[in-house]
Amino acid sequence: MAFKGMLKDEDIAAALQHCAAADSFNHKEFFAKVGLAGKSTEDLKKAFYFVDQDKSGFIEEDELKLFLQTFSAGARALTDKETKVFLAAGDADGDGMIGVDEFAAMIKG
C-alpha cells in the first residue's frame, strides 16, 4: 500500500466507506477523515507523488478519477462530476492539472 506508515489503515477504510456511494465524495471531508489534513507539507508532497501515477509532476483529470484507488485498489472511481469538482478545487492556476504545491494547498486549505 502506497500510504503505509503515513496513514492508518483504519482511517483509510473509514474515509473510503464514507464516500462509497457515487457522487458522495467531498475532498475536504476525505482529507480530514483519511488523516492527510494534519500532515506536514513534506508528507503532503510525498502523497502527491503517489497520486501522480504517470510521474509527470502534475495530477491530471484521469488520475483524479482514480484517486480513491490510490488508497485501496478495490475503491471506486470518482464520477465525472466529482472529478471535475475536485479538479476545480485544486487547480489554482487554471491549467487543467494539479501541481504539487496546489495539492498541498488544497489539503491544508
Features:
single chain, mainly alpha, two-stranded antiparallel ribbon, globular
Note down, in words, how this protein is organized.
There is one protein chain. This protein is mostly helical and 109 residues long. The protein has helices spanning 9-18, 27-34, 41-51, 61-65, 80-90, 100-108; strands at residues 58-59, 98-99. Strands 1-2 form a two-stranded antiparallel ribbon. Helix 1 packs antiparallel against helix 2 and helix 3 (41-51) crosses helix 6 (100-108). The longest helix is centred in the middle third of the chain and has 11 residues, at 41-51. The protein is globular, with a radius of gyration of 12 Å. In muscle, parvalbumin is thought to be involved in relaxation after contraction. It binds two calcium ions. Keywords: Calcium, Metal-binding, Muscle protein, Repeat. Ca(2+) 1 binds at residues 52, 54, 56, 58, 63. It comes from Oncorhynchus kisutch (Coho salmon).
SSE topology:
Blueprint: H1 9-18, H2 27-34, H3 41-51, E1 58-59, H4 61-65, H5 80-90, E2 98-99, H6 100-108
Antiparallel strand pairs: 1-2
Helix pairs in contact: 1-2, 3-6
Organism: Oncorhynchus kisutch
Protein name: Parvalbumin
Domain EF-hand: 39-74
